[in-house]
Amino acid sequence: MGSDLSDDRKETQISEPKARPEGSSPGPMPPEATLAMPVQDLCERPECAACPGPAAPTRIARLLAFGGGALLTAFGANEMVRIIVNEQMTWLQGALVVLFVLTFAWIAFSASSAIAGLLVRAPSLRSMAGDRPLTSLTALIMPVYNESPIATTTALQAMGEALAEAGVGERVEIVILSDSTQPDAWVQETQAFARLRAALLGRMAVWYRRRWKNVGRKSGNVEDFVKRWGGRYDFMVVLDADSLMSAETIIGLIRAMEADERLGLLQTVPNLAGGRSLFARLQQFAGSSYGPVVANSVAAWQGDDGNYWGHNAIIRLIAFAEACGLPVLPGKKPFGGEIMSHDFVEAALLRRAGWAVRMVPERSGSWEDSPPSLLDTAIRDRRWAQGNLQHVSVIGAKGLAWPNRVHFLIGIMSYLASPLWLGLIAIGLLLTLQAQWARPEYFPDILQLFPSWPSFDSERMLRLLVSSMVILFLPRIVGLIGMLLQRDQRRAAGSPLGAAASFVVETLLSALYAPIMMLLQCRQLYDILRGRDSGWATQRRDGGTSWGEAFRVHRWHTAIGLLLAVGAFLVSPILLAWLSPILLGLVLSIPLSRMSGSVAIGRMLLRLRLLRIPEEVDTPEVIARRDALIDAAEPLPEDGLLALVQSKTVRDQHLAALLPRPAEPRGAPNPDRLTAIAKIDQAETRDEALGWLTRPERLQIQGDPELITALAALPHLVSHEGKAAGAG
To answer: Taking residues 255-281, what's their average pLDDT?
Structure first.
């Protein structure tokens, strides 16, 4: 099934885009072109053609990554066991060995994977795409949820203009898929949509749809689009609200999909760019420096058994509809319910159905924003943690390729690693206390001539420590070497010495933030296991952290750091020195968190040419165009409903962006709509009605042309004649 599309599938695909009459005013969405999207059964493997085996380079990369990781882990485990040479291992020592092996395996795989990425090159986008005219129709979709409409539509305009200039404006259509629940955000979206459509008029089609019910969150938003309009398009490029892609990359993705009918999904590697705060620039530099090595290594060993990160990727519509209908997992949250981290699951289901899923390793043409502070990263991680842990219920699904199970395992381990590290530190402290204060048993209850002296292989311990440090820093060192070999990276750093200085700054700051993130993730895991849902909050794209917020979140981290520091000093000053990298981050967690969102510190580092990335030296055209559009954008109305009743232009543009509201079930009218009607009917002025209306009632009015018209028809002020008549 994955290797050859059947005739009926080919008929469903669109070879020529539908004509748009000149001078016409299209509706908010094109005519519906439905696709069936059946819910998948995770307990039953679907019938499909056998997937071809991995290519030789993929086999070599897997041998290096997994085989090398296994050998390094075996070495570490053997060394750790030999360090403890007592005849009978205590339970604390046994627990130490188990936790060490698990954490050592985590860093060993990262190191061996980096080596695999150096030795085996994954196929480039150019090699997959070729150079041919486009014959398909692609939807450039952006799901949004209470986001800044100016930020999202200016990014879409910059991409749309670039695609039109490249001559493919008739082969790509922009589709904004709104799940916004804030009344003001909805009106702002319709105004921004009208501006975007006007800006691209005659060059590219622009569509907009807002859902009334946020079923399934982002995955449900995309699923609704696929079911109702997916038959119109061959492919969809999925964006996040902070995504940006160059025309060259988008066209290359489309060409690659057209060239290989087996290809179901092609994922790019989004680069972080545009951040101004300390923490954002820290993450940008790390992604720019070490990201290419990681990206190529993952692309090399996964081959056609790739993964999906939920955005900045192109997907074949018919494959997605056929294979990616997500089930609701049985049981209670956090492991049951709607699948939150849907992207990993969708990639695995595509591969299970016989479609190839690949990743483009190049570091260019695909961008996203970074969270502006440590706490904003932690908030995003809380949602990701719940979604990744939920994959415990999916990893055993029937028919999955083993690399997809590895992707699930890596995602789960990325959040279990923190409690494992914390457990390793805690047991190490307990063993130190035991050695300091517990009296050794020199003569156990057996007949022997000589005492049982406690023994500890310090030479082997030092060797293991050095080996662990080398393995831990190997991906960073490889990334630094790669950065020095690339012209744009060297230019961004200013000089090899500048690159080394940025490397040191990033390493030291990351070491300080690491223990704070460890405790934050441990708390997240605790909350998840208690069944607390992460919710669905809008991600903050800018802004810093106040001292009060930092104190509220990190006061216990500071207390833990101080208590451990005092305890370690009382036990042994040497122990305090060993723990100082961890304790320093915890003791300083409040100012470090406050500093993380500081734009002033970010600017200072930029002036010093520290943590610079290539995009800050040679700004790509699409980024420069988006930024210019943001600077020139007229402000949108703050009070959406007030703007609707005051301005006919705003009202007309909003009404033009409305789809028919879904029918209410018989016998169950919407109470917010009923009370909104009653309040409008009873109000004497628009101001009085606006003062009465609640947020849900405002949403009901904004989706109903008759109610908008009725509210706008109310007088702004009550006339004196009206008051007199009312009194009589």
So the answer is: 94
The whole-number pLDDT of residue 441 equals: 54
Q: Which residue in 698, 581, 722 sits closest to 642, CA to CA?
A: 698
- Pull the structure tokens for residue 129: 């795409």
Percent of the chain at pLDDT exceeding 70: 89
Distance CA 346, CA 327 (A): 11
From 119-128, 407-416, 485-494, 606-615, the region with the lowest mean pLDDT: 485-494
Residues of the chain by 3-state class (helix, strand, coil), percent to 5: 60, 5, 35
Phi, psi for 140 (deg, rounded to 5): -95, 95
**Backbone φ, ψ for residue 679 (5° rounding):** -70, -40
Note whether 372 and 540 are within 8 A (CB).
yes
67/259 Cα distance (integer angstroms): 33
CA 527 to chain centre: 21
Q: Return the SS3 of 172.
A: strand
The DSSP letter of residue 3 is: S
534, two tokens: 């992460």
- SS3 state at 635: coil
Using the structure block, give the residue that is written with the tokens 């999906």.
308
Distance (Å, whole) CA 613 – CA 479: 14
In the predicted structure, residue 124 carries a pLDDT above the cut 80: yes
Measured CA to CA, the distance from residue 247 to residue 253 in angstroms comes to 10
Cα 263 to Cα 353: distance, rounded to the nearest angstrom: 12
Please list, in sequence order, all residues whose beta carbon lies within 8 angstroms of the beta carbon of residue 145, skipping any fewer than 6 positions away: 178, 179, 180, 181, 214, 218, 241, 536, 538
% of the chain at pLDDT higher than 90: 64
Cα–Cα dist 603/623, whole Å: 19
pLDDT tens, 210-220?
999 988 889 99
- Which residues, in sequence order, are CB contacts of 228 under 8 Å at separation 6+? 32, 33, 34
Residue 291 to residue 87: CA distance in whole angstroms: 45
Query: DSSP letter at 30?
Result: P
Among the listed residues 87, 91, 189, 191, the one whose alpha carbon sits nearest the alpha carbon of residue 142 = 189
Tokens representing 25 are 């005013």
Residue 224 clears pLDDT 50, i.e. is over it: yes
Q: How many CB atoms lie within 10 A of CB 708?
A: 20
Q: What is the separation of C-alpha 692 from the centre of its chain, rounded to a whole number of angstroms?
A: 39
Torsion sign across C-alpha atoms 88, 91, 96, 102 = positive
Q: β-strands 235-238, 138-144: how paired?
A: parallel
Question: For the range 500-506, what are the long-range contacts, defined as Cβ-Cβ under 8 Å and sequence gap of 24 or more?
Answer: 501/610, 502/285, 502/289, 502/610, 502/611, 502/612, 503/289, 503/476, 505/605, 505/610, 505/611, 506/282, 506/285, 506/286, 506/289, 506/611
DSSP string, 667-718: T---HHHHHHHHHHHH-SSHHHHHHH--HHHHHHHHT-HHHHHHHHHS-SS-
Instruction: Give whole-number Cα distances, 421 to 4, 306, 427, 428, 515, in Å.
Output: 48, 28, 10, 11, 9
Structure tokens at 142: 């952006």
pTM of the full structure: 0.89
pLDDT at 266 over 90: yes
State the Cα–Cα distance between residues 298 and 122, nearest whole angstrom. 9
Region of residue 642 (phi > 0: left; psi between -120 and 50: alpha; otherwise: beta): alpha
